[in-house]
Write a structure and sequence with these properties.
β8 (185-186) and β9 (189-190) form a beta hairpin. The chain has 2 domains: 2-152, Alpha/beta knot (3-Layer(aba) Sandwich); 171-248, Orthogonal Bundle (Trp Operon Repressor, Chain A). The strands form 3 sheets. The chain has a 5-stranded parallel beta sheet with strand order 2-1-6-5-7, sandwiched between helices. The protein has 249 residues and is α/β, with parallel strands linked by helices. α3 (64-77) packs parallel to α5 (119-125). The protein has helices spanning 14-17, 20-27, 64-77, 95-101, 119-125, 141-152, 200-218, 220-224, 230-248; strands at residues 2-7, 32-37, 50-51, 61-62, 82-92, 106-111, 128-131, 185-186, 189-190. The protein binds 4-amino-N-(cyclohexylmethyl)-1,2,5-oxadiazole-3-carboxamide. 4-amino-N-(cyclohexylmethyl)-1,2,5-oxadiazole-3-carboxamide binds at residues 86-88, 112-113, 115-116, 131-133, 135-137, 139-140, 143.
Amino acid sequence: MDFSVLTIFPELINPFSNLGIIGRSIERDLISVSAINIRDFAKGKHKVTDDRPYGGGCGMVMKPEPLAAAIKAAKKKNPSAITIHLTPQGRPFNQKLAHELLDNKGLILICGRYEGVDERITHNFIDDEISIGDYVLTGGEIAALVIIDAVTRLIPGSLGGIDSADKDSFEDDLLEHGHYTRPKSFMGDEVPEVLLSGNHAEIEKWRLETSLIRTFLKRPDLLKKRQLNTQEINILKKWRSDLKKLTHA
Ligand code: 4GY
């Protein structure tokens, strides 16, 4: 997967993409990340990328010409890539959308600044609009990094060892169970006995059970849209009867 990030602050992109799983995925040639400076495509001595809004009002708008030229250059390098504008007006980003994006050979991620980009860019150059959440950032760069991060770790081989992405929270609308490592006792707080037992069937049962209960307590909205299987229904039934006994005692 080839990511091209179009931004007036390329310095924001490179330090991030050289580290950790993303850095290793670049080394392994699973992805490439290039930050393209929109300013390099601006004309004139001052390389201006913004201008005052027609109709008045405060703030500045990103001029269409430099952005259009930058997008054309990115498209030329990677003709099958799709262009995505990061904006609060876009489709909400989630794990499912991360999987969907994985089907592309390349993503050209357009990062706006100021009040936003000229509407003619959206009309003529943007294939998709994506939002990482209902809040307003000062620019699209962090949103682009969020997408690069979430999509890259879905690429087979990126996580190293046995790929564990399919066990993640949200992959099946369940939150993940808790994790423990040494020491066995920390501040008087013990690792659950079952995890030390070596009984893998029991451990899997405990993990599913605690996942379900966590999801029920922290994110009931996730459970609502999920089909429970018989084992899961039985876990919740048992949990309900245990609670009933407690409250009737
Ligand atoms: N939220 N999700 C977001 C954002 C900042 C338009 C210029 C978001 O993806 N991008 O807040 N982007 C942009 C918004 C004006 C700054």
